[in-house]
Amino acid sequence: MIEVLDTYGLRLASGLWTTIELVVIATVLGFVLAVPLALARVARNPLIAGPAYAYVFVFRGTPLLIQLFIIYYGSGQIEAIQDTWWWPHVREYWGWICGIIGLTLNTAAYTAEIVRGGILGVPHGEVEAARACGMTTRVMYRRIILPRAFRIAWPAYGNEIVFLIKGSVLVSTITVLDLMGQARSVFSRNLDLNTYVIAGIFYFVMIYGFDRMWRAIEARINRHLGERPDTRRKSRPKPA
Amino acid sequence: MWDLLQYGDQGYGDELIRGALYTLILAASSVAVGLLIGLGLASAKLAQSPVVRRLAFGFTAIFRGVPELLIMLVVYFGVGIAINKIVGMTGYESRVEVDKFAAATFALGLVFGAFSSEVFRGAFVAVPRGQIEAGLACGMNRRQIFFRIRMPQMWRFALPGLGNLWLILLKDTSLAAIITYDELVREARTAAENSGESFLLYGAAGVIYLIFTALSMGAIGRMERWADKGVRRA
């Protein structure tokens, strides 16, 4: 194991960095996309809710691998892209860009469902109280519903990010040298299984560390909910 | 362009359908392996011995915290290397290659097992204690309590979780394409490379997955209703 790290440690480390980069960017962009999607999903107007439902169904109903292939190989099929002035500049990073697009669109669909679950989990009483205080729908969403929904959705959202980290390995199939991509290219050279074991340890530590951090934040954002009498806890709905 | 999807020599329709069939076979066999592993792990987690419990929880943590593809690659390459090494120690040369289907089934089964063990454990614990005590009071033995009281109700608690895991597994079978098992994605990829029509062929594969997902969701809904038939609704 030491030999592998000695010879290829730098490559694996650079792959690790690419993985972190991909996951962070896709998480942020995916979240930005997911909130309006979730709001559209709970809308009463079927013309708004319908397309959002279709989007979620398609991206949750097909494998991420297929989505990445359609984006990467499909875009290679469009000649108009290769004729643009910016193509020579992005050509080298095209796999990376397609990876970001694919991971973002995919995680947005899952996250939208989680946020929607959170929104539906907000107790009616709080919504009615907000209305009784004379809040407009906008203000009510900003002050009452969304902050509450995010707290409810927090644990499920953490699970989704773990799935995103694990799913990010698939960008190695579209030429991106993330941690998995580096591990596969190293393995094809040294045929030493320890390469995969080391990559596995990296992923495990990354996911374990993330999980710890996420739980710590959860405890912090819910600290005002800590010391309440049991009677109120019973009426609180379980997180989705 | 659309004639590429024809059934027969001119199109890739038959290849895609065969790939879809292989996808289903892989998913079904992985579920069978995964359920066995999951039940075994769940009973280990509920065991008296703290060592057994620790091991089971550790095992779950590892297989939930490492990407599925990595597990599949390690199983696929690793088992072969291990066998060859062991045989090599006896002085004989061996070049065993692990069957792709077996490697994919085992890897996906391990992941499914790790996740489903948590579902089973939760379902086991979710059956109210009072009912178990009622069973004891009626003079049932442990076996009778398990089969008459726990099992029928465990399904009710476990089905939603297992349904989700099935949907995840169905999509994870696509990873087997990377170790060149001829399932749907690999067939679509071969066809796309030969014809240059990536959108069409990957799109067709995507539609097949959507159909599988929709059918699965319908079936899971029916099973849940069946499992819930003894429950009073508000």
What is the strand and helix layout of this fold?
The complex is a heterodimer of chains A (240) and B (234).
Chain A: H1 2-41, H2 46-61, H3 64-77, H4 79-83, H5 87-90, H6 94-121, H7 124-132, H8 137-167, H9 179-190, H10 194-221, H11 230-235
Chain B: H1 13-45, H2 50-65, H3 68-89, H4 100-126, H5 129-137, H6 142-172, H7 184-195, H8 198-227
Helix pairs in contact in B: 1-2, 1-4, 1-7, 2-4, 3-4, 4-6, 5-6, 6-8, 7-8
Characterization of this structure:
The complex is a heterodimer of chains A (240) and B (234). Chain A is an all-alpha fold. Chain A is 80% helix and 0% strand. Chain A contains eleven helices and no strands. The two termini of chain A are 42 Å apart. The mean pLDDT of chain A is 91. Helix content of chain B is 77%, strand content 0%. Chain B is built from eight helices and no strands. The model of chain B has no long low-confidence stretch (mean pLDDT 91). Chain B starts with 12 loop residues before the first helix and ends in a 7-residue tail after the last helix. Chain B is flat and about 70 Å long. With 234 residues, chain B is mainly alpha-helical. Classes of the chains: A mainly alpha (240), B mainly alpha (234). Chains A and B meet through helix 2, helix 3, helix 8, helix 9 and helix 10 of A and helix 2, helix 3, helix 6, helix 7 and helix 8 of B.
Give the uncertain stretches of chain B in residue-range form: none
Proportion of helical residues of chain A: over 70%
Largest sheet of chain B: none
Which overall shape of chain A is indicated by the principal axes computed on the Cα atoms? flat
Distance N terminus to C terminus of chain B? 54 Å
* Protein chain pair with the most extensive contact, residues per chain: A-B, 36 and 38 residues
Helical segment tally of chain B? 8
